[in-house]
Amino acid sequence: MWKREGKRGSTFVELALVLVPWMALILGITDFGFAIFLRNAFQHSVREGVRYAVTYQIVSGMGHDASIKSVVQTNAVGMLGGASGASQIHIRYYLPDTLVETPNNWPGNLVEVSIENYQWGWMAPLLRSSSPMSVTVRSMDRMEGLPGGSLPPAR
After folding, report:
1. C-alpha span between 69 and 84 (Å, rounded)
2. pLDDT tens digits, one per residue of 37-59
3. 111: helix, coil or strand?
4. I need a surface site. Which of 61, 104, 110, 121 has the fewest CB within 10 A?
5. Is the pLDDT confidence value at 91 over 60?
6. Which pTM value belongs to this model?
């Protein structure tokens, strides 16, 4: 029979040597997966905002731009809540032939809805020392014509 007196602590040392890198790898994979999810969720939300904008729909009691921001916030899976989230949503209108920015949301103009410079900090301990990830997504489409030539709603 063997004597096991000198080997009792080696199990815990081996567990620590295996568990620490394994957990770092799992957290890193989770971190990058969430970053991809975040970008896809934001891309979906600005796409929905553009779809809402081109039809000139408005939420009761809000202007056109505020309604678009509300739709983007609703579709952003809770990541753009409150006034700070709304401040990162930008709506711009462009003339279709020159791409010059214009304040008018007239039919035929292009509308761009974007989420710009959303800062997200990494979860994994290995990446905490790095700067936060900055997410910017955009979507653009042409504004539809209004039935009967009526004026678009106020911005």
Report:
1. 12
2. 999 999 999 999 999 999 888 88
3. strand
4. 61
5. yes
6. 0.81
Which residue ranges make up each domain of the chain? 9-149
Q: Which residues are paired to 111 by β-bridges?
A: 93, 141
Asked whether 86 and 69 are in contact (CB, 8 A), the reply is yes
Q: Who's near 142: CB < 8 A, 6+ residues apart?
A: 54, 96, 108, 109, 110, 111
Q: How far is the C-alpha of 138 from the C-alpha of 40, rounded, in Å?
A: 11
Distance CA 109, CA 98 (A): 10
Burial of 6 (0-12, 13-18, 19+ CB in 10 A): exposed
Task: Tell me the backbone φ, ψ of residue 23, rounded to 5 degrees.
Answer: -65, -40
Contact 94, 59 (CB under 8 A): no
- Say if CB 121 and CB 33 are below 8 A apart: no
- Of 92, 91, 70, the residue nearest 82 (C-alpha): 70
Percent above pLDDT 70 for the chain:
87
Amino acid at residue number 40: N
Give the separation between CA 34 and CA 30, rounded to whole angstroms.
6
